[in-house]
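Standup, Tuesday
Yesterday: got the pipeline producing structure tokens again.
Today: sanity-check two examples.
Blockers: none.

Example 1:
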Amino acid sequence: MLQCLRRTRPRIPRRPSRVSALALVLLASACSDDGRERRRALGETPTFDDVMRVADAERGGRLFGQCAACHTISPGAGDRNGPELYGVLGKPVASNSRRYGYTGALRALGGVWTPERMDLWLAAPAKLAPGTRMTFRGLPDPLDRGDLIAYLRTRSPGDGDAEARPSRP
């Protein structure tokens, strides 16, 4: 008789049902900004300008949370494991902090942090400046990079464009 009861006892599912899994996916997508509409507006082969046209600085601020482990973004906040990034756009590469010890690889890169150059850096720092100490692997999604650059623009005096501004004294 015990054998019979064991066979008829309702089985407790060990994995979530398909309905539960679908509900979780829908709930997660409702809470996150997947940028579906913005991606649709970009089309199949968006240019950097197209991405920046739909970039969301507020979302970029949330993405900066990853960067905040090593960088600060407030004026005068100082350096951490990486240099302070307030006002970085428009400044010469490897010059935003006088106190930070930039690598030779980054100093040799030269030029100015333009939004386009920041896009290349955020995509793959080690590819742009082989030998950099920055261990961040990069953001593969152009829309994520655009959002982050839009946020950096809000944290840069002026408009953060290509014009080089002098470093802080």
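Example 2:
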Amino acid sequence: MPNWHLEGVWFDACKCTIPCPCSFAQPPTFGDCDGVLLWEIRSGNYGQVRLGGLRVAMLGSFVGNVWAEHSDARLAVFIDERAGESQQGALRAIFGGQAGGWPARFAELVGGRVVAVEISPVESSVADDLATWSVRIPGKAEATVEALTGPTSTPGEPVRVHNLPGAEVGPGQGAAVWGRATTDFADALGFSWQRSGFSSKLIPFDWYGPDGA
């Protein structure tokens, strides 16, 4: 198994109220959860295969506390169509858990049935000031998010939470920036919703494998 490293940002948009209880290792707001997830890889490699600039998206759902007792976990994976054959293989190995590191540990904790792995256009954007972020899988899913602000917010300072007990990107990965989804829909592979106003968070990740935690 080659050594590998990925660094970038991850975010989701889900059906929970703000803030999503799953990030605090609590049951989701309505007892179940579904949403879209996006990994934007800023730099990385899998052995000699370079992975910087690529994206991986997922649609997911589950019932119960994802960090404790839960059931009916399902995932659909979308790998950036710009990835070459060796890059696709590397991303499948990392995000499928076969290459170790945090994704393997996450797979052990959460489990779930992978209903599909597709090569697809995956579009994303993250504002430099973290005021907005978005993901789009054309014809299948889309989410746009605005960072939380309010009457006591410091201008230019997004809402951050440190040391989450249920960080989807693993322990020690930096502060989560919280947002509100203004658009959130999916219609693909048995996943279907259309909503707005619910929780989103963005967290940096810096992973190593095969032996990284």
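Quick observation on example 2: The chain is about 10% helix and 50% strand. The CA atoms of residues 140 and 187 lie 5 Å apart.
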